[in-house]
């Protein structure tokens, strides 16, 4: 008997319907859903993931405003991000509890908490330490629930189609970043306050929470704790479910998964994403301070970057599933990322146009995505090969390692890029003063320091004024009347502007000269991460050849049909 005919003998219970009490009491599906509902659950999980990453990244849209508002140095800001990721790492590790308690309650109520914090608590912070504590708490909660969301994606996607499903899940962080850029470019102007971006994000999160509360469901443990290669396995998975010992499968979960393929592959993909996390955390800072873009232009670069990334993730997932292989895509993604980093390195110290820089950044994002979506599919398949009941635990280990790696990288950034604090904190005001009083500052530059000091101490000192006029005439070759007019204009510059330039001008100038080279050093670290990722590709499960993968699928189908036939014969003899 064929798989399709046997499947028709299975009577599927109706899943718990949407509603208030169902959202509280019963979220389990006792049978694997058909294609339509299954896709609906996948879409909802992706939407939740987008919202969570939007919340996690929203501060990047106003990072320059935050540094000025709270008087944070660049080093302090980066180390705050680092320790936030460290806290999130242990939140991610705790997310492995989703194998025991389920996924949906963790996701739904975690989403409620992060939305409330973002909408109401964070905007109320008026000092840097309360702000850091509140945002770190958001990171810890999200570290937990962002383990549960890919576990749900795995539960609702057989291995055939897994890369496409993971590609859609992976657009969660990307679309989250894209939304940050789009909302920022549309709503931020010169009069904007940083709180507005957090409030917008938090209120949107509350809307998504209501939808998730009413409609999100998950598979029962006996169903999800099995390996499912294709939808044709549906009947067999449900038949086996009666004999699954859930408690035995969940014993010593961490110990079962501490293997070289899982640990090293998690580290490899984490260092591949160095360039991605650099763009998330520092893209706005780099585009505005190094390349001179306005804040809305910097957010537009991000919009293109993440928009292209979304397309690449979906395309990579579809192609990987069609060809039934993951590893070739991962190699292309790693090597392509390394190549685009080299092209970006050549732009530092130059003056690339908006179009040139945006193209390079977008292509880097695309090739990285080309490797990442197949990696997510391959990683979950590698965990399944070890124990399909421990998907959330495997993803928790991955999330823990990834955030620890980001923590380490963020500790390194201030040590490598030491010149950013003057540029971020004082660069914009210095440039504004220099532009507004360009002619007057040119006049001041030709007057000897002793003479300028005398005039500053006593603006009525005629001897110092005469000396200054003579120095202007000698240096610029202008008439005495013109020199007097220039000196008069210089005297009308606000004293606080001249004082600000005297205090910070040299440090900003030196930082502007040093920062491009320091960022180049950091991006060479990112280049090394991409190469390391390529070297770890063979550790994961999966074929290199589409032909060999097709043979595996055909053999699996044959075994499923044989096992179903045996189960039906046993049932008939009872």
End-to-end gap: 19 Å
Q: With helices defined by DSSP (H or I, 4 residues minimum), what is the helix count? A: 27
Shape: elongated
Weakly predicted, low-confidence segments: 1-15
CATH 2nd-level architecture of the largest domain: Up-down Bundle
Determine the CATH topology of the largest domain: Growth Hormone, Chain: A
How do the strands and helices of this protein lay out in sequence?
Elements: H1 3-7, H2 20-25, E1 28-29, H3 35-57, H4 63-69, H5 74-94, H6 98-101, H7 104-121, H8 128-155, H9 162-187, H10 195-215, E2 218-219, H11 221-224, H12 234-241, H13 246-249, H14 253-257, H15 260-272, H16 274-289, H17 295-323, H18 327-345, H19 354-386, H20 391-416, H21 420-436, H22 438-446, H23 449-457, H24 462-476, H25 480-491, H26 495-536, H27 546-573
Parallel strand pairs: 1-2
Helix pairs in contact: 3-8, 3-9, 3-10, 5-8, 5-20, 7-8, 7-10, 8-9, 8-20, 9-17, 9-19, 15-19, 15-20, 15-26, 16-17, 17-19, 18-19, 18-26, 21-26, 22-25, 23-24, 24-25
Task: Describe what you observe in this structure.
The protein is built from 27 helices and 2 strands. The protein is an all-alpha fold and 574 residues long. The protein has 2 domains: 32-228 and 260-428 and 510-542, Growth Hormone, Chain: A (Up-down Bundle); 548-574. Strands 1-2 form a two-stranded parallel ribbon. The longest helix has 42 residues, at 495-536. It starts with a helix and ends with a helix. The model is unreliable at 1-15 (pLDDT under 50).
């Amino acid at each position: 008997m064929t798989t399709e005919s046997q499947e028709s003998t299975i009577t599927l219970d109706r899943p718990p319907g949407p509603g208030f009490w169902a959202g509280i009491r019963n979220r389990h599906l006792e049978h694997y859903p058909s294609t339509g509902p299954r896709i609906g659950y996948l879409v909802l999980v992706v939407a939740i993931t987008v919202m969570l990453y939007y919340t996690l990244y929203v501060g990047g849209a106003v990072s320059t405003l935050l540094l000025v508002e709270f008087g944070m140095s660049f080093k302090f800001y980066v180390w705050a991000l680092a320790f936030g990721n460290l806290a999130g790492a242990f939140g991610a590790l705790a997310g492995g509890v989703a194998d025991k308690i389920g996924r949906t309650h963790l996701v739904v109520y975690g989403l409620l908490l992060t939305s409330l914090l973002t909408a109401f608590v964070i905007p109320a912070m008026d000092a840097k330490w309360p702000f850091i504590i509140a945002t770190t708490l958001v990171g810890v909660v999200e570290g937990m629930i962002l383990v549960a969301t890919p576990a749900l994606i795995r539960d609702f996607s057989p291995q055939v189609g897994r890369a496409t499903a993971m590609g859609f899940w992976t657009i969660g962080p990307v679309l989250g970043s894209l939304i940050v850029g789009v909302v920022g470019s549309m709503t931020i102007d010169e009069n904007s306050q940083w709180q507005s971006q957090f409030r917008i994000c938090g209120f949107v999160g509350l809307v998504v929470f209501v939808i998730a509360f009413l409609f999100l469901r998950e598979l029962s443990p006996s169903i999800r704790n099995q390996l499912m290669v294709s939808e044709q396995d549906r009947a067999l998975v449900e038949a086996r479910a009666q004999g699954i010992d859930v408690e035995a499968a969940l014993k010593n979960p961490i110990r079962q998964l501490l293997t070289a393929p899982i640990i090293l592959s998690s580290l490899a993909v984490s260092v591949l994403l160095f360039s991605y996390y650099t763009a998330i955390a520092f893209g706005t800072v780099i585009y505005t301070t190094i390349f001179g873009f306005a804040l809305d232009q910097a957010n537009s670069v991000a919009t293109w970057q993440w928009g292209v990334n979304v397309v690449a993730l979906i395309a990579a997932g579809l192609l990987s599933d069609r060809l039934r292989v993951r590893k070739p895509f991962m190699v292309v993604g790693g090597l392509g990322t390394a190549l685009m980093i080299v092209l970006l390195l050549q732009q530092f110290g130059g003056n690339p146009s908006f179009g040139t820089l945006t193209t390079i950044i977008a292509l880097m994002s695309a090739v990285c995505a080309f490797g990442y979506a197949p990696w997510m599919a391959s990683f979950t398949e590698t965990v399944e090969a070890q124990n399909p009941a421990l998907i959330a635990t495997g993803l928790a280990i991955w999330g823990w390692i990834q955030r620890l790696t980001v923590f380490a990288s963020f500790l390194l950034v201030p040590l490598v890029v030491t010149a950013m604090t003057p540029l971020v904190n004082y660069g914009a005001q210095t440039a504004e003063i220099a532009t507004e009083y360009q002619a007057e500052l040119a006049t001041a530059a030709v007057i000897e320091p002793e003479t300028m000091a005398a005039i500053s101490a006593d603006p009525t000192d005629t001897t110092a004024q005469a000396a200054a006029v003579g120095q202007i005439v000698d240096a610029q070759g202008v008439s005495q009347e013109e020199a007097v007019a220039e000196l008069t204009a210089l005297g009308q510059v606000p004293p606080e502007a001249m004082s600000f330039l005297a205090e910070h001008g040299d440090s900003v100038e030196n930082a502007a000269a040093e920062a491009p080279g320091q960022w180049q050093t950091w991006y060479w670290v990112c280049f090394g991460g991409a190469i390391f990722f390529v070297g770890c590709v063979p550790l994961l499960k999966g074929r290199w050849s589409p032909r060999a993968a097709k043979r595996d699928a055909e053999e699996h189908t044959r075994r499923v049909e044989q096992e179903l036939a045996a189960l039906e014969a046993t049932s008939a003899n009872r």
